Amino acid sequence: MIIRLAETKDVKSIIAIGQKVLLDFSFKEEDLNKYISDPAHLVYVADDKKIVGFISIRIEGEDAEIDAIAINSDRQHQGIGTQLLLEAIKDLVDKNVINLLLDVRRKNMQAFRFYKKNGFTTTSIRPNYYPEPNLDDAFCMKKEIIKQEKEKVRRKNEIILAIESSCDESALAIVKNGKEIIANTVDTQIKEHQKYGGVYPELASRLHLQNMPKLLKYLMSLKDFDFTTITHVAFTQGPGLPGALQIGSVVAKTIASYLDVPLIGVNHLAGHIYAGEFVKPYSYPALALVASGGNSEIVLLKESMSFKIIGQSLDDAIGEALDKVARLLDLPYPGGKAIDELVGNNEYPLINLPKVNVDGYNFSYSGIKSHVARLIEKEKSKGPLTDKTKCSIAYSVEKVFIDQLLEKLFIAAKDLKIKNIILGGGVSANSYLRKEITNRCKASRYNLFIPPLELTTDNAAMIGLVASKKIAINRMCKFDTPTSANLDLEIEGE
Ligand code: ADP
Ligand code: MG
Predict the structure, then answer these.
(1) Which atom of ligand 1 is nearest to the CA of 341?
(2) Is 312 a residue whose pLDDT tops 90?
(3) pLDDT over threshold 90, residue 266
(4) Inter-residue contact 448 to 155 (CB < 8 Å)
(5) Who is most buried in 296, 303, 333, 485, counting CB within 10 A?
(6) What average pLDDT does the segment 115-130 reach?
């Protein structure tokens, strides 16, 4: 079957189909003969040895209106209508038409659904537009075809500027076609927060404000990269510190407005989950273990970008709990990293820590943390902690925290018969966690997807990668989309 422009010899068949299929068809032979030779009209036919359908469109400046579209009743539901529409749109784009318009009867649900599926939106309703004897309202519908064509071209050359500012890292990245990192720059505020022993939110916002222009200048100075080739701008919409999120969002919206490109809000946790995809594409269904400063979660991904949290910490996040224990051990912030550096790949005598029993695939850290706090206090009352005691406590806590995560993760994998395991989040930098999860996946013959070390903690490349997935499923956001400190991961792919 081919779609082609109508010719005089097709006129009789077009009229026959129109009269058979359409309620409001008034074309005469002389009208159609005129339309076929008139540059302000486009008439296409679907030709499968005989004419099986047609579309007729009238052009008026930047607008075009569909006068009629009909498919023979024995050839409906085969995608012929869509093919006619797409072929016509190609020509309309060449003729610089911006909007394609049409009216459809309220009662004609089949046609309404067809237009909706093909990207038309309802702009208004005209009551009683169609006269007796078939009195009905008209739904006026519109599709912005130039915008859609522009978006297609953009996707072919997709270059995303991604912005991350949810906590204490200001980060920008340029990600090409959802896979290639052209630039990935992070300005960490760790040093500035160290004197407070943790992240001081107000200071984080102020530092993002200072860092963002520096990072932008750096991107603009790159030799092999032209800032004006950016096709989309992405930003971390949440979860995170409210003030910190705002700064990234304002930067993103300003640049996207200036470059006149679409904007994508990304969930930070989805970013952590997908950081490993820079190494190799994921397989589904998969279970993701997100272990970071603010989150510890087991997430089920039935397919790409579908998230269901099936287990989580009932109190502190693992990173947060590690940071607190480290502080008691007089280790610098961020404590998880300091504990890892202290312990390395060594093993030390294990201290006795309480066993935690939590329902389902959930975990808990506060009980062990309080127990360790009392223990350290007792030790300190005897005198300064020795290196040996410090190492022993750090090793035991790290092991018991991480073992708890892994135990639940692998029970869930077994229960749900899932063989693809994803690791993500700042704590996934931890040497013991990386080694253990690798060994256990090998033993069970599971596929493991794990981010490279430099993409474990907060970065913007992971935000760019998720943004690319959202662009592919048409999930761009409006310019007035707010940030959200508690953004829900489960709605990310919807
Ligand atoms: P969030 O996204 O919640 O802000 P990040 O993903 O930036 O958190 O992770 C930061 C957390 O990761 C901190 O709690 C830090 O202590 C922890 N962390 C970083 N490196 C390591 C490591 N090597 N071992 C254990 N924890 C680590
Ligand atoms: Mg993070």
Answers:
(1) 23
(2) yes
(3) yes
(4) no
(5) 296
(6) 93
How crowded is the C-beta side of 472, counted as CA atoms within 13 Å? Answer: 12
Span from the CA of 213 to the centroid of ligand 2 (angstroms)? 22
For residues 471-477, average pLDDT: 89
Asked if residue 328 lies in contact with residue 309, where contact means CB atoms within 8 angstroms, the answer is no
User: What does the chain come to in residues?
Assistant: 494
Query: Please, what sign has the CA dihedral across residues 33, 37, 42, 47?
Result: positive
Architecture of domain 281-450: 2-Layer Sandwich (3.30)
**Within 10 Å of residue 271's Cβ, how many Cβ atoms?**
28
Q: What are 336-366's pLDDT values in tens digits?
A: 999 999 999 899 999 999 888 899 999 999 9
In words, the CATH class of domain 157-274 is: alpha beta
Here the contacts of 184-193 (C-beta below 8 Å, separation 24 or greater) are 184/454, 184/455, 184/459, 184/460, 184/461, 185/215, 185/218, 185/219, 185/460, 186/458, 186/459, 186/460, 187/211, 187/214, 187/215, 190/333, 190/334, 193/168, 193/333
Q: Does ligand 1 have an atom closer than 6 angstroms to the CB of 293?
A: yes
% of the chain with per-residue pLDDT over 70: 100
- Is 18's C-beta closer than 6 angstroms to any atom of ligand 1? no
E-strand stretches of 84-132: 99-105, 121-130
Architecture of the domain delimited by 2-148 = 3-Layer(aba) Sandwich (3.40)
What are the residue boundaries of the structural domains of the chain, listed by start?
A: 2-148, 157-274, 281-450
Topology match between the domains 2-148 and 157-274:
no
- Ligand in closest contact with the CA of 324: 1
pTM here is: 0.77
Instruction: Render pLDDT for 149-183 as a digit per residue (tens, 0 to 9).
Output: 778 888 889 999 999 999 989 999 999 999 999 99
For residue 188, pLDDT over 90 is answered with: no
